[in-house]
Design brief:
The protein is α+β, with helices and mostly antiparallel strands. About 50% of the residues lie in helices and about 20% in strands. Helix 2 runs antiparallel to helix 4 and helix 7 runs antiparallel to helix 9.
């Protein structure tokens, strides 16, 4: 082989080796990006986002330490939120930020990366006045910092450090810059979700407060007016008794509003005391309780049991479900009508249907009928009744739906777990 051929082969071998190194680098880079993206898709909180990011970057890029700091622009501070070193099996996350983990942005290499919005690294830390994170007894010689950028906003910085000199290359900085974009996007999404949930909670509280104030005004004004009339000695006894009954009615409405609101907004699920009852006994109780009231309002009642079954309910709470549905029908049929209540025991399920021939529910309202503050009759309700009904039915492991069309009445259908064995 001539010296020329040998030289050509050597050049070719070097080129091939360089190509293989470049290819391996690209494979490693794509592996890092794919692993990070797959993990961040499952992250649903700031903690999981930062923990996963630190763990994956640490394991793939193999620094001595990896940390993420978030930037408080108002206070010009960097706050250490997650870190992993060689002695850790996984990333630490800090829910709070004591002074020891808060660093002024203009005093570190990490701060330089944030303020310049570019990747900043040093392979000779002896020339640097300070460092981001120095474990006791470990000398840091190389450090790499890349800002977390979301559009034009700086969210924080990713920091890598090593005890080896010249550990980080320009290529490592390029890869970390790519990775930081995905991390920043995930942090921004978590922040946006948090803000959205906060706004929804505030909006719900605002709607609730507005509704409560609006609904409370009427009974308060009525109570005040009739209380003043009671002070008037000119009225006779019958009139004064009527004033008293009116005040009592409005006080009950006021109390009902407060109870409905507390029931709905109560953060924890209240405990239930289950008692077995057959559909036949339930139908009998419903007929005795509501028959006279429906008749008084010109509404005929048909209450039947197709197939008996045993259900287990918290009697007080479930009676509230029935009471709410029946009284809604009474309010809907102001000129009288018909109400059919059917109890059917099926295979491990009891179906209860409450049907009326009232005016029906408009489609726009029907779609949101179980949402809070949705009502067709603000004068006789708080708008929380059916929201509470759905909550109670769900607590019983059941379901509730409604079918209706304008002019054709409405049917509320409740399904509950049941036992059809041993009952006639």
């Amino acid at each position: 082989m001539s010296s020329g051929d040998s030289g050509a082969n050597e050049v070719y071998a070097k080129a091939l080796a360089e190509s293989n190194r470049a290819f391996s680098g690209k494979v490693k880079e794509l592996s890092l990006v794919r692993r990070l993206c797959d993990a961040l898709l499952k992250a649903d909180s700031l903690e999981s986002t930062l923990r996963l990011s630190v763990d994956i970057i640490y394991e793939e890029m193999e620094p001595m330490n990896c940390s993420i700091m978030l930037y408080d622009e108002r206070r010009c501070e960097l706050i250490l939120r997650s870190v992993r070193g060689r002695s850790n099996k996984s990333a630490h996350y800090f829910n709070y930020s004591p002074d020891s983990r808060v660093i002024p942005v203009d005093t570190t290499l990490a701060g330089k990366a944030v303020l310049s919005r570019t990747t900043f690294y040093s392979n000779d830390t002896k020339t640097e006045p300070s460092f981001l994170f120095i474990p006791d007894g470990v000398k840091i010689l190389s450090i790499l910092c890349t800002p977390l950028l979301s559009k034009s906003k700086v969210l924080g910085v990713i920091n890598l450090s090593s005890a080896n000199p010249d550990h980080f290359t320009t290529e490592a900085g390029r890869i970390l810059s790519i990775v930081s974009g995905y991390v920043a996007m995930s942090v921004e999404n978590v922040n946006l979700l948090k803000d959205l949930l906060a706004k929804e909670r505030l909006s719900a509280l605002g709607a609730m407060a507005s509704t409560m104030v609006h609904d409370m005004k009427t009974p308060i004004h009525v109570i005040g007016g009739f209380a003043q009339l009671l002070l008037d000695e000119g009225g006779d006894r019958i009139e004064r008794e009527e004033y008293y009954r009116t005040i009592q009615t409005q006080l009950k409405r006021f109390t009902s509003l407060a109870e409905d609101t507390l029931e709905y907004v109560r953060g924890h699920e209240s405990s239930l005391t289950f008692t077995p009852i057959t559909l036949e006994i339930l139908a009998s109780e419903v007929s005795k309780a509501f028959g006279p009231l429906l008749d008084k309002n010109g509404i005929s009642l048909s209450c039947t049991v197709v197939n008996n079954a045993t259900i287990k309910v918290d009697w007080d709470k479930f009676w509230r479900v029935i009471d709410n549905i029946v009284k809604n029908s009474i309010n809907a049929m102001s000129d009288g009508g018909k109400m059919n209540i059917t109890f059917t025991g099926a295979d491990r399920e009891a179906i209860m249907e409450f049907s009326d021939n009232g005016p029906g529910i408009p489609a726009m309202i029907r779609e949101k009928i179980f949402d809070p503050f949705v009502t067709m009759d603000r004068r006789n309700g708080t708008g929380l009744g059916l929201a509470i009904v759905k909550k109670i039915v769900n607590q019983h492991g059941g379901s509730i739906t409604v079918t209706s069309s304008p002019g054709s009445g409405s049917t509320f259908i409740i399904g509950l777990p049941a036992d059809t064995m041993g009952v006639g």
